[in-house]
Amino acid sequence: MVLASQLVGTLVALVLALVRGETAPSATDIGWSVAGGLAGGIGISALYQGLAVGRMGIVAPITGVIAALIPVAAGIALEGLPAPLVLLGIGLAFVAVVLVSRVTDEGGGPSGVGLALVAGVAIGALGVAIAQLSDGRVFGPLTVLRATEAVLIGAIVVVGRRAWRPDRGLWPALAGVGIMDMAGNGAFILAVQAGSLAVAAVLSSLYPVTTVVLATIVLRERVTRSHAVGIALAVAAIVCIAAGSS
């Protein structure tokens, strides 16, 4: 399923690069795109494996916080400290990610901390690599990045001898996942090029909030107290970051 969605994302990114008339990526951009693709492929594979064999209530928040912390730290190191109100928003966002990612998980067995750490570091490295792309180039480098992820995940499928043919009925959903995932990466690139890496990284890390809200609306799942507090803190974080960045 991951391989199929990556292939769809690669194709859509290539089409958009041609439609947009982007020039061919430079050697530097290709290098950063390949590095980002390798990091992204490792990250998503470790995350899914951690969720499968570990405890979701541990794996999800650890991955989310580390994946946000690394590009935020890199952004502050490269671009300097943002305004105090933005720093407050960043702090609130980290707390929100932990609260919203919490899952009722009272079972025993492996915790999956090791895989969560690998996933968080790799996904965080992906964000840093994306931030190094040249201004004005979005979908060309993204095509290289997606293709690299597809090749890496394809190799994992072959070496692990895992099933790779999804049911035909799943293809519309897989296409949607690939398109939305690619769109998210493209939006992140544009956000970094237009503003601060630290701000773009922490705002994009709030995606679990959307997941919880949609699960409540579409799947009628119950919002726990920690989820509600996390959503409220996420809104406060966005307000602080927006006000401090204006």
Report how far apart the termini are.
41 Å
* Computed structural class: mainly alpha
Helix content: over 70%
Strand residue percentage: under 5%
Show unreliable segments.
Answer: none
The average pLDDT score comes to 86
Choose one word for the global shape: globular
Largest sheet: none
Tell me what the structure shows.
The protein has 246 residues and is mostly helical. It has one domain. Helices cover 78% and strands 0% of the residues. The protein has ten helices and no strands. Helix 4 (84-101) crosses helix 9. The chain is globular and about 40 Å long.
Structure at a glance:
This protein is mainly α.
Secondary structure: elements and pairs:
Elements: H1 2-20, H2 27-53, H3 56-79, H4 84-101, H5 113-131, H6 139-159, H7 171-194, H8 197-204, H9 207-218, H10 225-245
Search tags:
246 residues
